[in-house]
Amino acid sequence: MMKTVYKIKKMHEDPSDISSVELWKSVEQLIIKDYKWMENDYKPEVIIKALYSKNYFYLNYLVYEEKVTVSYTQINDPVFKDSCVEFFINLFPVETQAYFNIEFNAIGVIKMGYGIKRKRTYLTEADLSSIKIITSIKEPMKGSHGSDSWSLICAIPIHLFEKFSGRIFLEEDAIGNFYKCGDETEYRHYGMWSEVINSSPDFHLPEYFGTIRFSK
């Protein structure tokens, strides 16, 4: 199977406004449109763009989903049960099998862990307080939110990755995957950027991660 590759452009200055249209206008995008395991034909398209600097990873999600479910409001709640987007990444695949899972529901509640498959350490509220998150949906809800899409933009400090991995980020090739899911939404769904081949839903299969390439 051919490896999926996404190249992330480096910025030499951190933006003052991470939601600026100009900032993201020319950034290379990837699309989640491959959905598996469910037979309900629910396949919301997700457009994702990423940037990085010496200080942050920046992620921009545009999710074409007219109805959402947002029930969870506390850090490290099971946000994957809500309308959710996820990013899994191993920044040091030559040195370790451990990777980060970063999961957001539609109002930006985050769950973030580090480890090998499901043997994970979860970051605390104090750790995660340095992450900047902007969302178009602000409150828990279930149903139509008044638009055909919702958005989430975030800036994740690189020092968090370095602290929990015990390694210095040197901008070498990483491996990872981008996902869209909702275990307890109106239509249960599991979408991915790099195809996962498994008989049942499971995103914790790093053998199917794609390549994340940092353009220096």
Order of helices and strands: EHEEEEEEEEEHEEEHEEE
Oligomer state equals single chain
Give the name of the CATH architecture: Sandwich
**Mean pLDDT level:** 97
| Terminal-residue CA separation | 27 Å
User: How many alpha or pi helices?
Assistant: 3
Number of domains: 1
Share of helix, binned: under 10%
Based on CA atoms alone, the radius of gyration comes out at: 16 Å
Count of distinct strands: 16
Low-confidence residue ranges: none
Please identify the structural class as seen in this structure. Answer: mainly beta
Quote the beta fraction: 35-45%
CATH class: Mainly Beta
Question: Could you say which overall geometry the principal axes of the C-alpha atoms support?
Answer: globular
Query: What is the CATH T-level topology?
Result: Immunoglobulin-like
Report on the biggest sheet.
14 strands, mixed
How are the elements arranged and paired?
Layout (H helix, E strand, L loop, with lengths): L4 E6 L10 H4 L4 E4 L1 E2 L10 E7 L3 E8 L3 E4 L13 E7 L8 E7 L4 E7 L2 E4 L2 H4 L3 E4 L5 E4 L5 E8 H8 L8 E9 L6 E4 L17 E6 L1
Parallel strand pairs: 1-4, 1-16
Antiparallel strand pairs: 2-4, 3-15, 4-5, 5-13, 6-12, 7-8, 7-14, 8-9, 9-10, 11-13, 14-15, 14-16
Q: If you had to describe this structure to a student in words, what would you say it looks like?
A:
The structure is a single chain. The strands form two sheets. Strands 1, 2, 3, 4, 5, 7, 8, 9, 10, 11, 13, 14, 15 and 16 form a 14-stranded mixed β-sheet that branches. The longest helix has 8 residues, at 158-165. The model has no long low-confidence stretch (mean pLDDT 97). This protein has a single domain, classed as Immunoglobulin-like. It is 7% helix and 42% strand. The two termini are 27 Å apart. Strand 9 and strand 10 (119-122) form a beta hairpin. It is globular, with a radius of gyration of 16 Å. It is mainly beta. The chain has three helices and 16 strands.
